[in-house]
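**Discrete fold encoding**
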Amino acid sequence: MAFDWNSLFSWQNFIRLLDILAVWYVIYMLMMLLRGTKAVQLFRGIVVIIVIKLISWYVGLETVSWIMDQVINWGIIAIIVIFQPEIRRGLEHLGRGSLFTVYNKKENEAEIQLVKALDQAIQYMSKRRIGALITIQMNTGLDDYIETGIKLDADVTGALLINIFIPNTPLHDGAVIIKDNKIAVAAAYLPLSESNLIPKELGTRHRAAVGISEVTDALTIVVSEETGGVTITKNNELIRDLDQQDYLKLLYNDLVPKTEEKNSVFTRFLTSFFNKGGRKH
């Protein structure tokens, strides 16, 4: 009996394949979002509960099955509460997507000066093993953490950053938060990460840098007090032992706008569509 290839390449099968790929992509993005956060342990607990429910249903343990049903039914509300930071972070990632993004042609001189000031401070503190923790606000607001610090509202300069982190000074303990190319506060407190992926030899500054990257899209620079090594964290990624060329490349890529205009796919489609429509008249 010959195989009917027409039935295989049908529109209905294409929709099913698209449906499977969409679900796979959502699960993959969820795993990437939870990777390295404390939510992974909670997610494993949910999997255990589901497994117990299936086993109790199959074996016929009615009481256990009923209890698991209640846990699962009420667990939806609990998941929203427990995973609130991860859900917010995921929605912010979605909002920062490139669907509607349009980059400006104009190069921002203030942000180039910001990178130069950071470079000056990093070089000075790294060579002298002065510990530092500098967080730069991106799209996600950091007002909750800014409120914990001492207000400065000062222009970013290498000399000021160096003076802030000189040991045994009033502002050296805690994080500097930069907002809108200004030092908003110093001595701010950041959330400490509980991730097991952080190497044991790294201290509180590195855990705070990873912690803020788990709940926001902030870019954080850490200078190690023990080794003088430079680390950058962003989007739950910890990049260690950067030399000057490496961290400058990261800072310019993330902080300085692109010089050439790059419209999103959606924007290019609309532009092309209306341009074609205009030529018909």
